[in-house]
Every structure is written in structure tokens, then in C-alpha cells.
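Just wondering, can you check both lines?
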Amino acid sequence: MMERGDAPRRTKNQTRCGVLIRQLMAGSALAWCAMELCPSPASAQRTVAPATAQTVSVNIPAGELNHALLTLSQTAHLQIFYDMAKVKGLHANAVSGTMTTDQALSRILAGTGYSFSRMGNKISLVPASANITLGPVRVGGTVTHQDPTGPGVGYVAENTMTATKTDTPLMEIPNSIYVITKQQMVDQQPQNISEALRYAPGVKADSAGGVGSGAAFNQGGGITQRGFNTTQFVDGLMSSSQAAGETAFVDRVEVMNGPASVMYGQVTPGGMIGMSLKKPTDTPLHQVSLGFGSWGRYEATFDTSDKITKSGNVRYRIAGIGVTQGTQTDHVDYHRVGVLPSITWDIDAKTSLTFLGSYMYTPGTGTSYAVQYPIQGTLVTDGFKRIPRSNFIGFTNWNEDSVKDAMFEYQFKHEFNKYINFSQTFRWEKSDVNLKEALNDGSVSSTDFANQYYYTDAHHTVTENKSMDARFTGKLATGPLHHTWVVGSDFRSFDNNFQSQTEPEDTIINVYHPGESSYTPCYNINSNSGCQNTLTKEQYNYFQEGIYFQDQIKWRGLSVIAGGRQDWVNTTTNAISYDNTSNIKIADGPDHTKQPQSAFTWRAGLVYQFNFGLAPYFSYSTSFVPQSQTDYRGQPFAPLTGNQYEAGLKYKVPNKEIFVTAAAFHILENHYSIKDMEHTGYSTDAGTVKSQGFEVSVNANVTKNLRLIASYSFTDARFAKNNRTAKRINPVTGATYGDAISEQGMSVPYIPRNMASIFANYTIPSSIVKGISINGGIRYTGSSYAGYVESFKSPDYLLFDIGANYDFGAATSVLKGLKAQLAVSNLTNKYYMPSCDNYDCYVGQGRRLYGNLTYNW
């Protein structure tokens, strides 16, 4: 029995181990922690669980790396081998919370230039590879904690910030969220965000057809989710930035299907697209590429990231692109140069600040209204020749679509303590757009349908967007319940100055033989010019502010989420139109419209995770989107309000990177807006729309050689409560027929019921051939209706994509880091129409080839 004040007796084994450790640390370059070899009496008889599966509670402050490693080794009973001389002076990050030992060690080492490898419970520090650019380090068959805004691993991402604005595993979120990882984009080589979304469940990304073969995604990009138009968010803020649509500047793309208004405000019930811009990496990154492709595409990109200070607490990254190409349509070109620099400053262990900026000059966006062809010659070929995709139906000397886009953003984060964190993101954007185009006025020659009548338009638009999101987050426990809470506020100020001139030229262009059509403009901004045109000036100002709260509650395998938000929106529109011949104001609508709107939205959901990997869930959520439009009478539309019920299953195969999601949904949206067929240029309130269906998806890194994604979506979108009627249209003649019938119960146009896709990448084993991977995909899109009373359909289509890449470094170490890649979309060059309205069709993108050489060092 030990008396008070006596020192505890040490065993002979402990004494020998203590001497051994001191000798090794004093006389050897290799320092190691041997807590398992030198057990205490309390732990000598127990078996230590494998560290890869061990979860520990750690609280290691920032400081000297050697001290942090020793503390972790003692806490988790690890053997960590490393060279003391090489880590001397390096700074370790603070780590606090409950996590796996791999996660703790990964966070400690972030930014030090070191990673680790594992054999059982023995760990060795190794220099971080400069070529690890596609996700967290893989060690011992497991993956360290993934960055929720980072590139993911292979085709699988485990965490996200999109749905909750907190670092949350996908398995704990009672909503459908799909991540397009960086590796998937590398394998498929999409040239814009629309193409990156081709394999996403519930998303139709090609409604505008092949006109966007070079252009970036923007708010008018023809992308829908679950039957509703979508909105893009970049780093958590709504954006119309051209940089956001440039895949060379994006680390990952996320699809959240279903309402997201609680966290983001003005989002339709269909969902949102979230993107993460490239930011400085913890490990050095150096990459350049040269590309080539169809329609004369030539491209050069670079992407480099490294530390500025010796300790690595200040790091930079800069990405850039230069590209030029034609498109499948004559006289429609795509040209762009852009740069995205960023700097991250870890002010201390708990505070960081990141600055990003971009400038993009796109003198040719690769888009044009002149490739929206008439139904006769596209959809209808009985008695009509097919119109070639290369035909430019417009004026070759009046054809401009250029954009200048600048952006500045900062992200600030501070951890007050283990209970409260603060983060803030602010972005300023400005875009300057010039457009000259010819538009079909709907008239056709009485003697030959191929002779179409056109009028001209020119407009200049300057938009400025300022947005900010600030929030406090934290964790706390109330008895057995663990809470992750968020309280925040955001605002968005959007100013648009628009000036347009249209001239009723009524020039005839033959859709089969447009030729080198010429047009002499009679445009003059000054009045009394004698020009027969209309001048329109419009100023649109939008300001939105919202406050929101959310609580994520965990109890054993059960996760519950609940949150709410209040939004206030004010829009002001000043629009004036003049007859430029007489300088007389035209009474075509209100000159001054103010529309204050507000709404409260909320959501609640739960998910339960079983030990074998299955997680059923259910959620209810609402949405709110203010509308600034007016009908032909000048009456403003009521806000769009919606709600969704969603139930589903998520399954993560234990110890595998295979993630399966199945979801069923039921959505209602009130005041759904559609094109007014009786008043050109206006919309009308279509009442309530109901969208219901289900989605199934798989994201899998099946083996180290095989990656796979697959999905099926069924969407039945129909007009529900609706008092509108319309006549059906004959697609051959364009004339209406029969009596007017009710739109209620009719399908919403342009939305296919069925979509399915599969894509896989396979690396051929090195025992057969070294360094070669092949991939391929199949995309099926079902038929969709044109018009609002199911007059006729756009047919379904099936497309094939293939690709291959070769790693020269597998053949010789001299060429290490050099890779070649080839990607072909629409392999069979199928002529298809992704969408048609009552009179016109968009034609899909034909066969496109793209290849590049990439060098990493």
C-alpha cells in the first residue's frame, strides 16, 4: 500500500522502456512513441483496437509539431516514426474533438509538407506528394477526413457544406445531394458546367442544346432540377459570374435537389447548383496543360499553388486559361482568357483569411439565338429536309456576344473556442455584356417555309452584384444529445442597367441556304435619327436580406435537422421605351415598379444510420423566390412559394467507397411562371405546378482500378390548379386547331419523365499494359412535351461518350507527371433536339472531340 507522499513504484519493464526511449531520442535521428511497447499496469492486459478504426477524443493545441505528435501517440497508443531533425521548427495545427486517429493526424500535419503511411498501428511520416491534387491522402486502405469544399476522392465525396453550411457527412443529411468530384471532371473533360452536370440525377442540363458548346453556365443556361429552373451558388453565395462556369477554376460541383431556401433564400423547390472555386492547397501543386479539340479548339491552362512563408501559414494559388475555338455552327465562336489568383493566410491556429479574385474576358461566348431552328426541318422531317447543325441563321456582320467579368471575394474564419466559430464570405462581381443578334419574328413566307423573317437587336448590359454571408456555428451537448448549430445572416444587392435597340427589319433568311447574310444597321442612340427602331432603357435594382438558424441534433444513430429563415426583398424597376424616329415615349408598360416581398421558410428532417451502412430519411422543406416580372398589363407577379416532401435511403457500403442514394419526392409550387403565348415577350401565371418522382444513384470507387457513377430519374411535372386554356398546335403548319382545352393536369413542357446514365473509368492492370485508362458513358433522355397542352413531343435520345488517358510516367521515370487524355462526347454524332417549343427547336451538340497533354510536378 502506498503512503501519502510516496512516489509510485515503476515496473522493470517500464524502467527499461523509459531508458530505451531516452537513448533513442538522444542519440538517433528516428524518434518514436512506444506506448504499446511500454504499457502501464492499467493497460498491459487489454488489447488495443486497430488505429484505423479507433475513435479518440483529442484536444491538442497548436504549437511545435514534435510535441503534437508525441501527445497524439500517447493519447491513441500509436507508434509514429519520423526524423526529428527534419520536423524541427515546423508548426502543428490545433486539433480538438472526437475523430479517428487518421483524421487527427491528417489535421495536425496539414500545411507542414508531410503526410503519413501506415502499417497496422505503426505510422511513418513521409513527404507530401506534389502530385496529390484530387483529394485527401489515402493511407492504410482508408481516407483521411475530406475537405467538404475540396475535390473529393475518385468519384466519391463524403462531406459537404452545401446543405447545412456546416461540415456534415452526406449520410447525415435528409436530402438528395450529389457531388461531381474533380476526378469525374478530369475523366469526362466537360468544357462548361452544363456539361459537368450531364450525369447528375434529376438534372436536365442541355435544354439549350449545342449553342453552349463553349460558353460558361449562367442563370439562363437552360438547366432544370426536378422540373424547375435552377440557380447557381459559388462558395455559398448566389452568383452570375462567368468565372463560376469555367471548369478550369472549379474544384467540385454539387447538386442539391429540393428546396434550399432555409440556408440560401431565393431558391426554387427544384434545388440549387453549388460550386467551389479553387483555393490554395496544403501541399504544393504545379500543373500546366495544352489542349485541342473539335471546331478548331486550342486551349492552354495552368494551376499552381505553394507556400509563401517558410512555415506555410501563407499560401497562394493561381489558375489561368486561354482558349479559342469555333462551334458546330458557322460564325459562332468561343474565345476566352481568364485568371483566378488566391491567397490564404493562417493568421494563427484559430484564424484564417482567404482572398480570391478573377478577371475573365470572353469576346465570343460560343452562344447565339441564331441556332434555334424552326420545327420544320428539325423535329418534323416528313416532307422537309433536315437543317444542318452548321447553318447560321442570322446576319454574319451583326453577330456579337461578348462579356467582361471581374470578381473579388474574401473568406474569413475564426474559432473562438471549441463551442463557437465564426465565418464570413463576401463577394463583389461586375459584368459588362455586349450583344448583337438577329431574331426570328415568327413569320414565314407564304410560298416557302424556308424563308424566315428576322428582326435585329443590340443591347448593352452592365450588372454589379454584392453579396455577403456571415454566420456563427458551434457544437454543444445537452445530456445524450449532441448539437451542431448555425445562426447567420446574408444579403445580396444586384444592380442591372440595360439598354436595347430593336429594328423591325423583316429581312428574309433562308434556313437551308443562309449564306453570308449582311445587314446595314440604322441604330443611333440619339433621337430623331430617322431610324425605324425602338430604344429601351431599364434600371433594375434588387436587395435581399435574410436571417436564418438551424440545429443538427445527433443521438446515437439518429440525426435530426430543423431550421428556419426570414427573408425581406425589395426590387425596383425603371423602364422607358422610345420610338427612336420621333422621340415619343411608348406606353408599353409601367415606368416605375416597386415590389417589396417577404417570406418565412423552414425545413425539418431526420435520418437514422444503422451499423451496417443503411440510412433511411425523411424531410419536409419550403421555398421562396421573389418575382420582379410583370404581365402584359404591368401587374407584378406574386412570389413563387413551394414545398417538398422527400423520403429516401442512403447506403454506404462498410469499408468501401461505394455510396448509393434513392429518393422519392413530391413538390408543389404556386404562381409558376410560363411564357405568355398571346403576348410576345411576357410571362403569365400558370397557377400551381406539381412535380413528383424518384431518383436512384450510385457513386463508387469499386476497386483501385475501377470508378463508376450511375443514375436513373423519373420526374412527372404537371400543371395542378390552373384556370388557363389553350389550343393545340400542329407542328407541321404551326397553326392552332380544335377547341381551347384546360391546361390543368397537362405536363409541363421541356421536362422529360425519364433520364438514365452510367459512366465508368477503368485503369488497365500494369501486368497487362502500364499507364492506360479507358472510360465510357451512356446518357438516355426521354421525350418531353412542347407547348402547354401536350400538342406534340420532342423525341427521346441516347448518347454515347468514350475516353482514354495515358500516363507516360508508367513507361519511364523521365516522363513522370506527364499525361495524355482524349474524350469524345456523342460518339455516333446523333442529331437530336433536347427541347422544342411551339415553333422552334434547339439542336443538340454533335460529336465533340477533346484531347490534352497535362504535366504535374
Notes: Residues 134 and 264 are 28 Å apart (CA to CA). Residues 12-27 form the longest helix (16 residues). Helices lie at 12-27, 65-76, 84-87, 101-109, 182-188, 193-196, 261-264. The radius of gyration is 30 Å.
